[in-house]
Amino acid sequence: QKEVEQNSGPLSVPEGAIASLNCTYSDRGSQSFFWYRQYSGKSPELIMSIYSNGDKEDGRFTAQLNKASQYVSLLIRDSQPSDSATYLCAVVSGGYNKLIFGAGTRLAVHP
Amino acid sequence: DVKVTQSSRYLVKRTGEKVFLECVQDMDHENMFWYRQDPGLGLRLIYFSYDVKMKEKGDIPEGYSVSREKKERFSLILESASTNQTSMYLCASIRGGRRDTGELFFGEGSRLTVL
Questions:
Q1: Which of B46, B50, B61, B63 supports an S-S bond with A96, CB 3.0-4.6 Å?
Q2: How far from the centroid of its chain's Cα atoms is residue A6's Cα?
Q3: pLDDT score of A71
Q4: Which class for B14: exposed (0-12), middle (13-18), buried (19 or more C-beta within 10 A)?
């Protein structure tokens, strides 16, 4: 079983809709969870972090964490074509801020 | 402007060649990482370092080695390149000690092709 699993997509949503991206992880001891966005040909960039069960909102983005189910999600409200990218779920595993990444979900927002 | 700089954006090497990928960060970060990224597989951790001369294996260290002689520089070495090492290589750094930020700073990547 992979440590961090994501549906590879592509996830296609119309402009203005809510995009929902999901991630599961295997390490029950993980305490820190992150969403990175990667545009084609570019390096990943951090967009959200979450450490406690529940929801965390930042602008159009909401991260949701359920440690009992080992599940993390990212909601993007009012999706824009500029949100089209690959979204990577990452989990801190072990020490030294070592991040383990999922394979990523490709999101396509069409006008 | 903080930066992680990778020495080469594109490299083409032949099977069996020794390959050096260099990474330099100017943020005084303790922790540095080398990932490779392949379609459908995401970022996979090759090696990381939490201090000068210290290194730890990641998930896929076979065929690679690393060197960290100075805090700002972390090198990835392919002793004898093989075609299955054709990939995008990403270097990243993060400040040590704090376990809750998760903000890795990435270089622009080095696309290696092994013929």
A1: B50
A2: 9
A3: 95
A4: exposed
* Signed CA dihedral, A46, A50, A54, A57: sign only: negative
Whether A97 sits inside 8 A of B99 (CB atoms) is yes
d(CA B18, CA B79): 5
**B53 burial class (0-12, 13-18, 19+ CB within 10 angstroms)?**
exposed
> How much helix, strand and coil, in percent to the nearest 5, is found in chain A?
5, 55, 45
**Which residue among A33, A98, A103 sits closest to B45, beta carbon to beta carbon?**
A98
pLDDT tens, position by position, A49-59: 999 999 999 99
Q: Greatest CA span in chain B, whole angstroms?
A: 41
pLDDT digits (tens, 9 = 90+) for B8-43: 899 999 999 999 999 999 989 889 999 999 988 889
Interface test with B, best of A32, A72, A97 (most B CBs within 10 A): A97
How many C-beta atoms surround the C-beta of residue B98 within 10 A?
Answer: 10
pLDDT tens for B57-92 read 998 999 999 999 999 999 999 999 999 999 999 999
